[in-house]
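Readers of this paper often ask what the protein records in our data store actually look like. Below, we set out a record of this kind in full and without editing:
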Amino acid sequence: MQYVSTRGVAPVLDFTDVLLAGLARDGGLYVPASWPRLSYEEIAALAGRSYVDVATTVIAPFVAGALSPADLRRHLTAAYAGFSHRAIAPLRQLGDDEWLLELFHGPTQSFKDYALQLLGRLFDDVLARRGQSVTIVGATSGDTGSAAIEACRDRPSMDVFILFPNGRVSEIQRRQMTTVESANIHCIAVEGTFDDCQALVKAMFDDHAFRDRHRLAAVNSINWGRIMAQVVYYFTAALALGAPARPVMFSVPTGNFGDVFAGYVAAQMGLPVAGLVVATNINDILARFFASGRYQPRGVVATTSPSMDIQVSSNFERLLFDLTGRDGRVVSGLMADLKSAGAFKVGDNVLAAASPLFTAARIEEAEAAATIAAEGRHGGVLLDPHSAIAVAAARKVKRTRGVPIVSLATAHAAKFPDAVARASGVRPTLPANMEGLLTRPERVTVLPNDLDAVRRFVTGRARVSQPQRVPA
């Protein structure tokens, strides 16, 4: 499998180099040169199979030529061995043709575990074969950081630097990062928003001398490996509900667009996805785009769903690449307009290309709280605020009778205890593996929203300081 940049200038790479590269050197994001497809019969044959079985089949085309099926299966088995539910990603029925996909049974109780538990093992495999080490830098709006830290802690081939917006993640999310004692983990609280953290990470990758000197690698969903692993649970959910004979809709709480883009990839692979609902909170840049074709960031407003408090959705560029006919020049022009003018607008043809699959819905804070209260009262299900937004959006959009809709529950309610308690009157109980979290000492450095300050911090602590081979 070969990979190309969404901006069309960076070199074509294989999976191994894409895994380590993260962001393309032209500033774009890597995507497969063409989408692999599974036939109706191949998808049907996965019905009733284990999560690892489905994952092996779905992921195999993306790692072809870089990882054998046996090695892939070995990594997948290890990645999901510690999950707390035998189904790995179980479904719960909420109503008629209405389902919840529980993606919080991993070690940090977030959907990010489904990709990062695999990604950490893939990094280890590749680095061991090459005899290399890397410096991982990532930005998090809450859950990526803890999932990446859990996947990469104590690994001698990796130093990990996680940037998060100071005061803009929940206490549980923060402590899941800052209480880890591993020497290779470094937490940076940036005085700014998640968009600021994400911009700092991208700027470090765009500084090619700095990038090469420290062998930077990415764990954010700019890394294709993250998207690839998330495609799997769309397949397992749809199969459980009758696919491929029956189409299925999905409602996805959306901030950086990575998770819902994985649903798009599943559709490109042949899964009968009837629609993807882009569920946003009041930071609704994506809902506005799908309504008007104009992409224009506004100021970020802090909400009870902090992982969605985003105005610059990195993975949206991957969708734009497909919608514009995979023309890197067009995508580069749109990104240049965003940088220079603070916005861009696509033509009606581009918006029309998205409309058969994508619908968007903005959910107000009061709507999310009411959904938490209603599900807790009537269904006995405690939803975190992000999952509540997905459920509220699923009930807001137009649906086809007889087509099930699956809302993605992306985090355990206990990660947002204050918001859930205010909405439902019930304070969620911490899972057993989080006991003592609130009393452990924290290790964190607060830095200004300043690239030089962050680079100096990384330089002073990263063990890797030799340039890597740059792919030709």
Residues 467-472 have pLDDT under 50 and may be disordered. The chain has 19 helices and 16 strands.
